[in-house]
Amino acid sequence: MTDPTKSRQFREIALPHLDAAYNLARWLTRNDHDAEDVVQEAFLRAFRSLDGFRGASGRPWLLAIVRNACYDWLRQNRRGELDVAYDDDLHGDVRTGTTTLGAGPIGDPESLLARTDDRRLINEALEKLPVEFREVVVLRDVEDLSYKEIAAVAAIPIGTVMSRLSRGRKMMLTHLARRMPGGPDGM
Q1: For 98, phi and psi rounded to 5 degrees?
Q2: What is the pTM of this model?
Q3: pLDDT per residue over 2-37, tens digit each?
Q4: In CATH, what number does 85-179 get?
Q5: Which CATH number does the domain 4-82 belong to among 2.30.30.240, 3.40.50.300, 3.40.630.30, 1.10.1740.10?
Q6: What gap in Å lies between CA 71 and CA 88, rounded to an integer?
Q7: 144 in helix, strand or coil?
């Protein structure tokens, strides 16, 4: 039997963030059905550990649980996705802002994204990111979490959050530059 106070508290803390939980799981698993399964597991974990919740906002707490459930699921079902290393030849040189495939400077994220109004291309670029970069980009640019909140969710230092976010955005830009007219793969 469930304690009605605990159920009410869980609804107040966790349910407002169901969409964000699903969104994070969807981007990490890259599959609607798998994301639903992961979110269900994460909400069960969150309910069981509700007594340990000590915070002002349930969102980072819940998203940390969702993130951990996603990584557990990926380890069990798609281990290879967690073993992808960063490759300058594949992702571009993040120090210079250029791709190594001859595309030249790719500009800053805001100007390129402003010129790119095709949401499908942006989503495609996000899907191509290795999972550890994809998660910080989703948490910052899609879910609008602060660096501090992302650090708490991902259990990494803020400097690592900033580094992964920068590298993830540049990888996306490299992918988008390849798809833009005049890019190496564009028309």
Answers
A1: -120, 155
A2: 0.73
A3: 688 899 999 999 999 999 999 999 999 999 999 999
A4: 1.10.10.10
A5: 1.10.1740.10
A6: 25
A7: coil
